[in-house]
Amino acid sequence: MKRFLAGLLAVAASFSLLTGCGQQNNTTDGQEQQTQQSAVEPGYEEGLTTRVAALKGPTAMGLVCLMSENEGEDAHYSFDLYTSGDEIVPLIGKGEVDIALIPTNLAATLYQKTEGGVQVLDVNAGNVLYVVSHDEALTDLSGLKGKTVYMTGKGTSPDWTLQYLLGKAGMSESDLTIEFKAEATEVVSALAQDASAVGILPQPFATVAMLQDQELSMNFPLENAWKEYSPDGSGIATGVTVVRTEFAKEHPAAVAQFVQDHQASVAAAEEKPADAAALIEQYGIVKAAVAQQVIENFNPMVATTGEEMKTWVSGYLEMLYEVAPDAVGGKLPDEGFYYLG
Predict the structure, then answer these.
(1) What whole-number distance in Å separates Cα of residue 289 and Cα of residue 278?
(2) CA–CA separation, 328 vs 109, rounded Å?
(3) What is the pTM assigned to this prediction?
């Protein structure tokens, strides 16, 4: 499979206390860092079950080790997975969900609509958008000139991100032909019919495409261009974890504990990708074979907190606001949007 390993990066060597993806006896660096950052001592609250909602996909992949540890009567969390953020938003509004893993722009819009009713705890999904084609020589945005580009997400984050990056690169949509498809599978089919075309797909669909068509190359992540134009070099904050502000005020120790547990869950998945992949399939997110490839080669899972989280998220929202102000609720969130412990 040509250039499939081009995106390889080091798997984190931290250990987890979670048995769901392999029990270890060490505390993760992330846990230690969070304890230092937070003014609140993390802890489980007797009689409290924190209700967590997540979208099926990269935002939920980092949760599976924690999910597997919370299936009994003594669970500290309950988890529900959804296919659309529109399913989660009303649950947050009604107070039926305490913590949610959702797209970053949706979090900003929700913050505006609820007048500060949610806050961002961490970035849970970084770069997930990859350029794929049958041309191994395609290595940057300039190579898209004159090409037909197939992608999903018209009027959503992938569309806005590409528009922004093309502008920064001195290009416009008139320099290429963008064809939007309803499903990632349609992008794969279009590439099979037009070998000169290019696809932009999120993970894990980019990996699925590679497995279906072994002549495809994983050319480059859009994050390469993003970091080139980002003033601070921060990554793309695709997805975030939000907490209801009211819940955070009433249960600060439980919130700090969740942040710590989320970091440990991500570290456990990175440490034992095969075990995590089996859980990812078990929870109906994506097939284990695909999940393992995604974790090992592209690692879209993160649990970035504190000031680094704020830098990532604010930079990403500024980009969205520049391209499509309505995407973030018409204005940029204020400082209250960021939960810094």
Answers:
(1) 8
(2) 5
(3) 0.86
